[in-house]
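ugh ok fine here u go
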Amino acid sequence: MQSKIKNWLDSGAPFVWLNAGAVSVSVVMVVGLIALIAVRGLGHFWPSDIAVFDYAFAPDSESSQLMGEFIDEETVLRARAGNPAYAGATIKRHLLKTGNRDISGLDFSWILDAGIKHKTYPDDAMVVERREWGNFYGFLNSVQLDGHNLQNNATLWATLEQAITQNNAVFDEIRYIEKNLIGGINYKMEKLRLKERELVLKEENTPVNLQALIAQREALQLAYNSHTATLETLYATLNSASLTATTADGQAVSIALSKVIRVYRPNAMSLPDKVLFYFEKFWEFLTDDPREANTEGGIFPAIFGTVLMVIIMAVIVTPFGVIAAVYLREYATQNLITRLIRIAVNNLAGVPSVVYGVFGLGFFVYFLGGSIDQLFFPESLPAPKFGTPGLLWASLTLAILTVPVVIVATEEGLSRVPRAIREGSLALGATKAETLWRTVLPMTTPAMITGLILAVARAAGEVAPLMLVGVVKLAPSLGVDGNAPFLHLDRKFMHLGFHIYDVGFQSPNVEAAQPLVYATALLLVVLIIILNLTAIRIRNSLREKYRAAEQT
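structure:
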């Protein structure tokens, strides 16, 4: 028996099963984590039914009518529930989204299951999604349009939806004028101011030079006045309509349609209507700007900032990482110094990322950025242009953080190129540089791309260094726009990882922010998974290509 066990152990079968079990557990854990994030995050966009019910805070107290969405439920100890009036060691309670924050001061409240009475789901229960103060829950009474009060009309709901659609179109036009047209004029005005200050510093502020600036400023002022006049007309149109609704407890509330994004009746919606609504909300989440302290709206600026920063970082890190690896493997003498360099590169990969952030802040922002301002942008001082955290410094900081990954991956790829290929190329008359450029590096491309994508995947998930070198809670402008030079490396930006941290831990409305944390985390995880799968696919494809070339 002992010999059989010994033979079984010597065969290595236990270790095979152990490795298989470890891999299986890891896969289950990863899939379970992604499934949890997906359920918690993607469920936020589904239009939940609205319940109306009587609720008694204690068995002998008078009941009051409540209205809202049931978000979550749990069973807790009676002492933890904060209401010992109901009997039982444990109590089931529900998290109710009541909305109407401007009236009650809260969006959410925990209610006990034992206190709920006469729960119904009326078809006319209405949700008003607002630009401020969150959702409103109530019943529609009337609509005020062009000085007319419309109520008790069979087409009242259709009239309200049409009016909101028109108002949203006007709001989009206003936002375009303010952000793009007037924003562009303000940008050019600031450029003229800096140009005038530059002339003063260079003592070239002659009447001829100043006259040209004055003419440009007057032309911009005329365009600005024209846009502001258009805005006044649009705002007058936008603020001329409103709706009147009643809350569950009978309180009448008037809401300006300029503050309304959409209205809907989830209890009366069919399944296809809810599916269409779901994808509309999800698309808004991907393409719209955030609002309500990032707890409502979309995350497009964070997606754009993350992708733009990663692209700039990739452009910076690739040549430096590849050149360093080529030098260490192909040209450097293999001695103590090169061994120390490799040890240093490997150690850099283990340095905490926040240390890179401190280095980026001290060297890139304060030293290098401050020097650039002094040399090339003295007219902008004392307000810094590059001497403050921004997109360029964040990309450079992450490039330094991820360059060891590219170096190690590229050097390993170079070491796998057979020596016979190099010797054959040299024997045919190619120089060492030609052999490297036309033969060795193309065969190393799979390893180089793998290192690059792994670096990109790591950079996409980093948060700590970015908090020091450029990321912000809300960026007023994107890093790319229609104003020359179009790519603004000095601007601050939003990032998906920091957005998760900010919404999850800095939000004043935790319950409202929680679903968005899961949804944003899922988006970030999916982005990183796609990048890694892309790396594997490209690596395998190129590996097969050059393997076939070798066989030929």
